[in-house]
Amino acid sequence: MPLPKLPTRPAAILDLNDTELDLLPPTAQTAKGKLANAPKTDHLAPVLQARDVIQDESEGETNQRSSFKLPLETTPAVLPAIAPSKKTSIQKKSPIPRASTHRTTKAAPGISKLFVLDTNVLLHDPSSLFRFEEHDVFLPMMTLEELDHQKKGMSEVARNARQVSRSLDTLVGEHNQLDEGLPLSGLGHKDAVGRLFFQTTAMSGTLPPDLPMGKADNQILSVVRALQDAHPSREVVLVSKDINMRLKARALSMSAEDYFNDQVLEDSDLLYTGMLELPENFWNKHGKGVESWQQGGTTFYRINGPLCHQFMVNQFVYFEGSMPLYAQVREVNGKTAVLATLRDFTHGKNNVWGVTARNREQNFAMNLLMNPECDFVSLLGQAGTGKTLMTLAAGLAQVLETKRYSEIIMTRVTVPVGEDIGFLPGTEEEKMQPWMGALEDNLEVLNMGDADGGGNEWGRTTTLDLIRSKIKIKSLNFMRGRTFLNKYLIIDEAQNLTPKQMKTLITRAGPGTKVICLGNIAQIDTPYLTEGSSGLTFVVDRFKGWPHAGSVTLQRGERSRLADYAGEVL
């Protein structure tokens, strides 16, 4: 019996069962049916992939395009045996093929997404490659090009670029086939079970002609469009920290998202405030079997009730009813908690370097600042709530009076609000002096009192010189590798720090050092940082409940009636 005539063009071999045959278009089913009735031979198995024939009107040629594609994670079908006498070449299909026609199709359930990363995501979080769990990651060539331009220098961005390059080099070094993708779990990240793909060929998607292709953002968008064309059944998502980049992608019918893995909280209103107002029926449900005792001038209460399991260690609780209570949680054990009364810093006799607390939140903050067992304090609040003044007053009292710490070290992020004035002359402290206007203002307030005993001009000048000799101003750029022993470290404007920078600073603390972070998360000046991803938000959330840390969010401004009114109406 003569063999059937072989096809004139090579076709990708794909074994289709009856269920898959029903999903094919009628023309493909007809072709399959004809093949089923064809004569069979011993040395050639009847295999054929259904194809749609598309007529090219411009060139008059007939191109063949597969109408049935496997997703990336599908295992290729086992090829049938072919007689040795026939030489058949089967071209291997690349896992990231190219295509030229744009289709918009929703991803099938169970298929992982393909995330295309913008350069700013890698520069913002060097470990972002391993934060997409079971999904795959794609790096366009333009992303690698921009990453190479950012690697030079000593800035945080340059360090992140070099770290990403080292991670990529380690991943690539163990594998030779880049087209098949690299397993992201190769560096020990067990949660990253997806694969990393590089752009190994020229990819060009159809974009509006008004967009200049010489711009890096538009080249990345073109790659996203090409991937959408190549994988119509898979969701391709662009991940970028650039808002305008995401807006352009969505305007072109592309999926685009922000990088959310660095977000500590989705809503800043859920941030831990360090305080909890007790309900009106608190004593009715927690007043039975209360134990009390005194130790070191502090009264302790052991209470039982359903609200105790919500308490955090070092959290402040207050009740302003007929039996007012202002206390700090010291222990939590199931439905049992131990509360300790506070020292009243609103009274003049308990003033700290001439400063007294003016409201409830300031009193809570002063208890944390003056507590030697509290190694880390974070104070949040808008401008004028007294964060810097109270922190400096507590520091001067514990450096010059009680000698608990040897000196005060103050630093802050040098992010200008307006145009930068350029390079500054002088030493490190002289260069930092223009950024420390808040320090000078508060020192004048603290030195206006009768701190020297005489109250004359000469005495105030002498006291101010003594104070300045105990305060060192340092730059963040020279903090790496240092260790501070018995220091009172103040980090001002901490909302402009990234979580990695915050970790670098706090880990500088040696034995006997107290770290205080001050900031307002509503005034972030660092690019790509938000209220949810700020380093200040990060440490407040991670340190809550630790016995040697505390946090207070100050609510009321105490600067002046003009500043308070401006904060409300402007």
Count of domain modules: 4
- State which percent range the strand residues make up: 15-25%
Classified in CATH, the superfamily of the largest domain is P-loop containing nucleotide triphosphate hydrolases
Describe the sheet with the most strands: 6 strands, mixed
**Using DSSP, what is the number of strands?**
20
* Poorly predicted tracts of residues: 6-108, 416-420, 450-454
**Separation, N- and C-terminal Cα atoms:** 93 Å
Please tell me what the overall shape is: globular
Helix content: 25-40%
Number of helices: 16
CATH topology of the largest domain: Rossmann fold
Structural class: alpha/beta
Question: What is the gyration radius calculated from CA atoms?
Answer: 33 Å
Please list the strands of the largest sheet in the order they lie side by side: 5-6-4-3-7-8
- Going by CATH, the architecture of the largest domain would be 3-Layer(aba) Sandwich
- What CATH first level of the largest domain would be assigned? Alpha Beta
Can you characterise this structure?
The chain is α/β, with parallel strands linked by helices and 570 residues long. Helices cover 28% and strands 17% of the residues. It has helices at 18-23, 26-37, 119-124, 141-149, 156-173, 216-230, 243-251, 282-286, 360-369, 387-401, 428-432, 437-447, 457-469, 499-506, 535-543, 561-569, and strands at 51-55, 62-66, 114-117, 136-139, 182-183, 195-198, 236-239, 255-257, 275-277, 291-295, 298-304, 316-319, 325-333, 336-341, 376-381, 407-412, 471-473, 487-492, 514-519, 549-554. The strands form 4 sheets. The chain has a 6-stranded mixed beta sheet with strand order 5-6-4-3-7-8. A 6-stranded mixed beta sheet has the order 9-12-13-14-11-10. A 6-stranded parallel beta sheet has the order 17-16-18-19-15-20, with helices on both faces. Strand 12 and strand 13 (325-333) form a beta hairpin. Helix 4 runs antiparallel to helix 6 (216-230), helix 9 runs parallel beside helix 10 (387-401) and helix 10 (387-401) packs across helix 12. It starts with 17 loop residues before the first helix and ends with a helix.
